[in-house]
Request: fold
Amino acid sequence: MDTEVAVENLIRRKVDILFCIGATDPARAFALYETAKKRGYPLSVVGVPKTIDNDVQYVMRTFGI
Reply:
């Protein structure tokens, strides 16, 4: 993923909050945040774990069955 292109797209669409659901690589979401920060764009990034089998500690409900 080219974070520069992705952030440019978010800026052009005036997206200032991004929810990353079930990201397999949290570093990608953080990279988007860092790239936006370097450009002076106020982008908030929220990571939401998606689990289908309750394998995340303290998560009582899941997206799956």
User: Anything to note?
Assistant: The chain has a mean pLDDT of 82. DSSP finds two helices and two strands in the chain. Residues 22 and 49 are 5 Å apart (CA to CA).
